[in-house]
Automatic annotation (TrEMBL):
The gene is purK. This is N5-carboxyaminoimidazole ribonucleotide synthase. Keywords: ATP-binding, Ligase, Nucleotide-binding, Purine biosynthesis. Coiled coil: none annotated. It holds the Pfam family RS_preATP-grasp-like. Catalyzes the ATP-dependent conversion of 5-aminoimidazole ribonucleotide (AIR) and HCO(3)- to N5-carboxyaminoimidazole ribonucleotide (N5-CAIR). The keyword Nucleotide-binding applies. Residues 102-285 form the ATP-grasp domain. ATP binds at residues 98, 138, 143-149, 173-176, 181, 204, 255-256. Pathway: Purine metabolism; IMP biosynthesis via de novo pathway; 5-amino-1-(5-phospho-D-ribosyl)imidazole-4-carboxylate from 5-amino-1-(5-phospho-D-ribosyl)imidazole (N5-CAIR route): step 1/2. It is an enzyme of class 6 (ligase). Signal peptide: none annotated. It catalyses: 5-amino-1-(5-phospho-beta-D-ribosyl)imidazole + hydrogencarbonate + ATP = 5-carboxyamino-1-(5-phospho-D-ribosyl)imidazole + ADP + phosphate + 2 H(+).
Amino acid sequence: MKIGVIGGGQLGRMLALAGTPLGMDFAFLDPAPDACAQALGEHIRADYGDQAHLRQLADEVDLVTFEFESVPAETVAFLSQFVPVYPSAEALRIARDRWFEKSMFKALGIPTPEFADIQSQADLDAAVASIGLPAVMKTRTLGYDGKGQKVLRKPEDVTGAFAELGSVPCILEGFVPFSGEVSLIAVRGRNGETRFYPLVHNTHDSGILSLSVASTAHPLQGLAEDYVGRVLRELDYVGVLAFEFFEVDGGLKANEIAPRVHNSGHWTIEGAVCSQFDNHLRAIAGLPLGSTAKVGESAMLNFIGSVPPVNQVVAIEDCYLHHYGKAFKAGRKVGHATLRCADRATLDSRIAAVQALIAST
């Protein structure tokens, strides 16, 4: 079986690493000449809207998936005329637009912060008057890793904020005084079979995920599974989906979904019986899903901008290095380390060791 992937970044690369033992081959469509996934398969260098090259991809593969939601939904809809594509164009259309996404959560009874659609500075002024400050303004599409958003804390922050974010459609969300940030990685097969990984505690630095720690028997696991299950059924979803939540007053409020394998699920490569990448491929190919159970205590730490010397990373016991083969650049995710330990005390010690190495690099 040959899988087409829209996007050739590290997520596509890790999908191919997981799919190779399953006898799968890969083709990546990505405009970047140095797409890091190209070492794992054919690289079709083209823009995401290039219909001639999209048709070429469709003719070469058995099915198509995508590795990030910056892909236009129109691209997936076009490909769907010629080859199965999972997740669907409709799932992507909703997940990539924060207004559609939040509106879906509200309709499904999933708690969210207050939110408003912003099409102008006048809309922003009115929304701030209604929702209040502090609040977070985000572009409706394309923002990630802290990009395309601004925290509004005082009236002066509101002035000119619409223009500051590019005068594009935005959403204003009420600020959530959360006690923690968690995410749930789920996978749903073509036949509706659904499995969930343990909730993950996430820590961010300057808007970029820095640390994810898989939980054990989290008291909100069942509630998170309920909320995510509602979304999976609503979208008739196929593949892996990540749902990020805020922990608030003993409950959960929705932040956002990602219709793909997700950074906070990288720990599953060594830390779960079947990784998120393996399970995504199983789901879209119509294969039986694998176990999402944890193996030991696990965590993931991102390498941002640069990767520490390989010999120093692998010298840390219980540590596994994943180098993306990307050029080093400030603010760019260029690799990660996963940890799998026998107990939580050892895990915490290993996390501290990796963090010290990152700080010294």
